[in-house]
Amino acid sequence: MRRVNQLTTLSRAISGAPSHQRLVQGAAMMSTYTASNSQCFSWRIADRFGISNPSVASGVAGTMFFSVAASSLAQEVQAKEAPPAEKLMPKDVVLYQYEACPFCNKVKAFLDYYNIPYKVVEVNPISKKEIKWSDYRKVPILKVDGEQMVDSSEIIDKLFQRIHPDNSVPDSDEERKWRGWVDNHLVHVLSPNIYRSASEALESFDYITTHGNFSFTERLVAKYAGAAAMYFVSKKLKKRHNITDERAALYGAAQTWVDALNGSKYLGGSKPNLADLAVFGVLRPIRYLKSGKDMVEHTSIGEWYSRMETAVGEPTRIKA
């Protein structure tokens, strides 16, 4: 209780300071807090995403701290994909996730688009007690009628084949190329953007601390300590991925995707394919952050994104 009171007092003091000072003070708070714990908090932040080394792989970790997309902006109406036939529809689907994880959002975009109802279990990033039953220590994990599925792309492939048993290949070479581009390029461009400045880093962590499964103490520490850690890590990410201008890299990636559409509504033509869903799933959490707003303002991706919001439609998540 004494430690919680100390953290509460420190948090209030930090919140009144300018953004850059809050990050420095947050880093100090992280150091103080973790001095009495067996594991450095920055490593816990990375471990939250199943990453063994935050300085090497935090490009993936950084993309987890996003806000969730808001209401649709689309002007034209397009129906969702028809639900799978009753005999093909999974009966019990449970997603173990972090709310802001882009890879979890990829899976949710697929489930929403195909009208597959699913339950959500929000995993505590520190204890991970919700997935202690599994040998797999990362998210997303999807249980489908008792069967465990892991890795977002493999989950989507398996679900696609399950609801399309006559289609042995879930996507074309073109789709697979762009799905790989999402995992190997797009996600690495996002982290340096959402942590580009002190204010943007705090914006990202403000969402995750209010929507993630944290204890009270963890929430107090994570907002400022996590933002401070990722603000400085993002500078290393720029160097690692040869990024000199964060926004230029983001705008370039967005425009690369628009160019790939070649004038079509979707990469899939008249309706979204798996690549469309992958790009949308990863971008959906950042759409209403400053970086996402800038991306839409300075590129021509906005029309495609709006069409995707309408096509994917309302979440099919089953409320507890």
UniProtKB/TrEMBL annotation:
Reaction catalysis annotation: prostaglandin H2 = prostaglandin E2; prostaglandin H2 = (12S)-hydroxy-(5Z,8E,10E)-heptadecatrienoate + malonaldehyde
Localization terms from the record: Endomembrane system
Gene3D superfamilies: 1.20.1050.10, Glutaredoxin
Domain GST N-terminal, first and last residues per copy: 91-168
GO terms classed as biological process: fatty acid biosynthetic process
Entry GO CC: endomembrane system; mitochondrion
Sample GO molecular function, one term: prostaglandin-E synthase activity
Listed pathway(s): Lipid metabolism; prostaglandin biosynthesis
EC number: 5.3.99.3
Glycoprotein in keyword set: no
Keywords, in A-Z order: Fatty acid biosynthesis, Fatty acid metabolism, Isomerase, Lipid biosynthesis, Lipid metabolism, Membrane, Prostaglandin biosynthesis, Prostaglandin metabolism, Transmembrane, Transmembrane helix
Membrane topology annotation: Single-pass membrane protein
Family: Belongs to the GST superfamily.
Designated name of the protein: Prostaglandin E synthase 2
